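Dear support,

I submitted the protein below through the web form. The confirmation email said the job was done, but the results page showed an empty box. After a refresh the structure appeared. I'm attaching both so you can tell me whether what I see now is the final result or a partial one.
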Amino acid sequence: MVFLNYFSNGNIVLSAGDKAPFFSLSDQDGKIHNLSDYKGMRLIVYFFPMADTPGWIKEACGFRNIYSEFEKNNITVIGISYDKTKSLRDFKGKYNLPFDFLSDSKKSVAKSFGANGFMVPKRMTFIIDGSGKIEKIYKEVNINTHAETILKDILK
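What the results page shows now:
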């Protein structure tokens, strides 16, 4: 059940089983992505602090390195940050990342997921099922093993 947790500065707190908040954001190339575009698919939405920072490089490249396993299992990955689309495009190209990054420059989507932070989003990940419900939330992320952990959890 979605509720306001006033002990966490009024951020929305989501739980497994909740309907994922709607989003409509531009990717690194200016293409609009809506949550409804992923109906019938399993979707991984991960929020990250900032493009081209050491932690994000490790996390994003972790997804890249096993992305074929996600594809093979009909799982789509998208990353969301407050970065502008150009920063996301440059980063995606620099590290040959095969999935899309969405710009939440107005911070509204991070807020609706409870991942908003003051200057940057919190590092959080949501697995969303094909009907748009949250399957699992990762509030603690090990940037070195995050992608492998998610894949293992989904496939078990």
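Response: this is the final, complete result; the empty box was a page-load delay. Residues 39-155 form a domain with the Glutaredoxin fold (CATH 3.40.30.10).
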